[in-house]
Amino acid sequence: xxxxxxxxxxxxxxxxxxxxxxxxxxxxxxxxxxxxxxxxxxxxxxxxxxxxxxxxxxxxxxxxxxxxxxxxxxxxxxxxxxxxxxxxxxxxxxxxxxxxxxxxxxxxxxxxxxxxxxxxxxxxxxxxxxxxxxxxxxxxxxxxxxxxxxxxxxxxxxxxxxxxxxxxxxxxxxxxxxxxxxxxxxxxxxxxxxxxxxxxxxxxxxxxxxxxxxxxxxxxxxxxxxxxxxxxxx
Length: 234
Description:
Strand order of the largest sheet: 1-2
Strand content: 15-25%
Helix content: 40-55%
Oligomer: single chain
């Protein structure tokens, strides 16, 4: 019987759905003109210059809640993969979860503690190759770290914005005569980044989440291929 690992796939699809919701909410936030910008032409001692200042509102808490949903479903997909790999070789999946460790030296101990060793030597070898520890596979490890963080602190992203009112530097007569035109309250770009002290601090939120979804999808596919390769019924 072919092992489809359907439960992990379902969790990944849920993560994708939450990510789509996050993108829609982020777009709505940007469309609300969250930035308060001011571009003012001033003249001092016959010299004209532009004073430009601005402030952009913080992201709404709803965005943080959705980020947590994305991360939790990815973490759940990994745990379900571990359970299905154990069941694929006829073992009991009680208390089985996907092992993460602080270092490479501690990984074997976590494999035993999370009972992933029941999945067999090939599955354990594949797990080791993924390096789910600090200074190993940083992107994979951050899924676990963010999931833990979300249980205690909402992952509310930071927001940075750039406003670019059109600046006319020279008048029709060719003299330097700066003038702000257009709508300075319409930022040309708004970026959402992971909050301070989060694992991927400073990285753009939505592109990074897409990368994490693809990472987990690839891991599930690798274990599926292994389970089907070793199935004598195929």
